[in-house]
């Protein structure tokens, strides 16, 4: 009889334990995370520099082409075609170089942003373990939380934690 009572007590205690659940608005976390904002700003500066470079090269190429057009009238038809072909090749080469630089910039920016996202996920996981959460759900756009009690919203705490760690 004592065994049955002990087993029932254990079952009741286990059933009475509730899971500790919280949620985080993913969009707010990322929008409020200083490291993410710094990465975006860094790549925005790099993109602007690349655009200035593209504009500068484009203007120089246009001047070169205008000079060719002015000289072309004094050239033979064959010479015009040769020169035009060379200019066209240089233009394509410059365009390919700039496109390659842009792709490299985008790839490195995406890699760095993926790293930021991984760090955020790891910090949320560590926060959950340290604070006894069974689950921390993701909310915001495309998130899985359609409704959550505001007392279970961990977004501001997570943003503060992330920014404090990033500042160090």
Q: What's the alpha carbon Rg, rounded to whole Å?
A: 30 Å
Please list the strands of the largest sheet in the order they lie side by side: 1-2
Helicity, in percent? over 70%
Please work out how many helical segments DSSP would assign. 5
Provide an overview of this structure.
The protein is mainly α. The chain is built from five helices and two strands, in the order αβαααβα. It has helices at 2-16, 26-32, 34-72, 77-130, 155-167, and strands at 21-25, 135-139. Strands 1-2 form a two-stranded parallel ribbon. The longest helix is centred in the middle third of the chain and has 54 residues, at 77-130. The protein is rod-shaped, with a radius of gyration of 30 Å.
Architecture blueprint of SSEs:
Elements: H1 2-16, E1 21-25, H2 26-32, H3 34-72, H4 77-130, E2 135-139, H5 155-167
Parallel strand pairs: 1-2
Tags for this model:
single chain; 168 residues; mainly alpha; 2 strands
Summarize the structure.
This protein is mainly alpha-helical and 168 residues long. It is built from 5 helices and 2 strands; from the N terminus they run H-E-H-H-H-E-H. A two-stranded parallel sheet has the order 1-2.
